[in-house]
Amino acid sequence: MTTDAPKSDATGAPGSNARSVLIETGEWAGWRRPDRDTFDTRSGPFYHRRDADGSVRCAFLVEKRHLNGIDVAHGGCLVTFADHAIFMFALDHLRGGPSVTVSLNSEFIGAAYEGDVVEATGDVLKAGGSVLFVRGVLKVGARVILNYSGVIKKLKPKAAIPAPRDPDQGVD
Length: 172
Fold this sequence. Notes:
By secondary structure, the protein is mostly beta strands. Helix content is 15%, strand content 37%. A six-stranded antiparallel sheet has the order 4-5-7-8-9-6, with helices on one face. A three-stranded antiparallel sheet has the order 1-2-3, with no helix packed on it.
């Protein structure tokens, strides 16, 4: 699969205000990918879409650059993808506000190889006022390769950051 014909869209991923691009042609047609220059974007590209039943599915193609020294997908790559996926599953609850991963647990069950398409499915187990509990699995076809769960913390919008203090002025 290749990255083809992206179209920018300010409405972004399912249920969010995040920016993403809709892929209109090629093997990823109908999928979206983030439209930002961040670690998870450079690690992928990671794609997402909303299925007919309303659930969110994520996917990426394992390329040579994703492999470790024994020619399987690097565990760090798979966990990065799982971390990305928990936010895609939680977007309807996050409402575009800032949030961070508090914890991410994973169990490696199988391997992915160059040319494999790894898919993530999952759901929000509980959404509280400021914390969400999310779980999912990564699969290649019907074969589970990673089980994971995570906790997401909703943050308050950024407050103004005060200017640094002059250390010679003392403490108030």
